[in-house]
Amino acid sequence: MSQTSATEFLSSAKQDTNLREKLKAALDLNRCIEIANNAGFNFTPLELQTELSQLSDEAVAEIMNPGVYPRQHLNPQ
């Protein structure tokens, strides 16, 4: 597990339409991690949250569409 893997995953999601669509359909953080694992990435929910916290709300929305019910837990306020 590594922070680098979470960073690479988010970079990949920006480029990969199929991966991005799967993330937008995810209803919780655990499902996002499962999608990442299936795509060959290995990191913890905390590592993903750390990476997401470093991005603007707009950048995160492009990747995961957080903050829209029921995805509010992906980007807690």
Walk me through what this model shows:
- By secondary structure, this protein is mostly helical.
- The chain has one domain (3-70).
- 64% of the residues lie in helices and 0% in strands.
- It contains five helices and no strands.
- The chain is globular and about 25 Å long.
- The N and C termini lie far apart (26 Å).
- The relative contact order is 0.20.
How helix-rich are the residues, as a percent range?
55-70%
Percent of residues in β-strands: under 5%
Which structural class should the secondary elements be placed in? Answer: mainly alpha
- Radius of gyration, Cα only, in angstroms? 11 Å
Low-confidence stretches: none
Largest sheet entry: none
Q: How many helices does DSSP assign? A: 5
List the helices and strands in order: HHHHH
What's the number of domains? 1
Total beta strands: 0
State the shape.
globular
- What's the overall average pLDDT, rounded? 81
Question: What's the topology here?
Answer:
Layout lengths: L2 H13 L1 H9 L3 H10 L6 H9 L3 H8 L13
Helix pairs in contact: 1-2, 1-4
Features:
64% helix; 77 residues; globular; 0% strand; mainly alpha; single chain
In short:
The chain has 77 residues and is mainly alpha-helical. The chain has five helices and no strands.
